[in-house]
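Protein: Coenzyme F420 hydrogenase subunit beta
Species: Methanothermococcus okinawensis
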Amino acid sequence: MDPLGSYKSIISARATDKRILKRCQDGGIVSAVFIYGLENNILDGVIVADKEEGFRPVPKVATTPEEVLEAAGTKYTVSPNLSVLKSAIREYACEKVGVVGTPCQILSLRKALKYPVGFRHMVDKVKLLVGIFCMENFPYMGMRIIVEELCGVRIEDVVKMDIGKGKFWVYTRWGEVKSVKLKKTHPYEQSSCHVCTDYTAELADISTGSVGSPDGWSTVIIRNERGEEIINKMIEEGYLERRPIDEGKFGLGLLKKLALVKKEKNMKEIEHRKELGLPVPPDVCH
Ligand SMILES: Cc1cc2nc3c(=O)[nH]c(=O)nc-3n(C[C@H](O)[C@H](O)[C@H](O)COP(=O)(O)OP(=O)(O)OC[C@H]3O[C@@H](n4cnc5c(N)ncnc54)[C@H](O)[C@@H]3O)c2cc1C
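Structure follows.
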């Protein structure tokens, strides 16, 4: 079985809009897709993770490209994006909602759409699920300890965080770049992430992350017709530029390897927790 789940195609791509490239995490795929959706009446509201002081994430219903741009960039902590879904539909009266989420959030949302207990009248209003790759996340205080204690940077000064090349990176508004080896950040990970076996948001319409593509570009997994239609239109109309995915060991090879590592490592943890009588997810994807 493919460790990336099912998909139609995989490409490398990046946004062409300079405003997006200035603020985004990788190739700006999430922001570009949402802005394209809002500008072309495919979506009328999107759920993103904005941030408050201290890099605290806040789920937000964005209805304009400016609001999407404000929320660009990765927050390496939990942003309960699904908590504002009802608000998007009931308060903002959105009829065509896009949602970005980590693999666990995409899985939860798919489940809610399939078995809509408490989600009546909402199923047909969720139009696009954009998943972001995720190996693990950190509780807010964990992320803060990594930034302030391990990297020695005040959280107020941070403009960007990133994970890559075996390290957690912190960029400050003074132009400083600090990093710490992931070996040292492991103790601060959210423990529920260790029983998750989905690296690439397998149930999204479109999944994206940096692994497998050159710096500044994103790997884009197009999973179904809905995802394919929007990505193809964006390429045709010049919102995205694309290049073939590197099929080698630092491209698709690395992506598949990491996806498999997450499955195998966390399946072991699931078995271990089962032995101890601890609760584990009932229907993990293998
Ligand atoms: C905890 C975490 C771990 C990750 N691990 C990996 C990894 O191992 N490998 C990899 O290739 N990529 C990983 N990513 C994804 C990567 O960091 C980028 O988010 C992704 O490539 C999208 O970049 P972009 O330039 O297309 O998005 P942007 O255009 O910058 O947009 C990012 C979107 O994601 C939303 N967002 C930000 N943080 C969160 C959050 N915590 N929860 C939900 N939504 C959020 C933002 O509001 C924004 O709408 C991880 C992301 C997170 C949140």
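Remarks: The pocket of flavin-adenine dinucleotide is lined by residues 24-31, 48-49, 57, 71-76, 79, 81, 100-102, 132-135, 137, 163, 208-211, 218 (CB under 6 Å).
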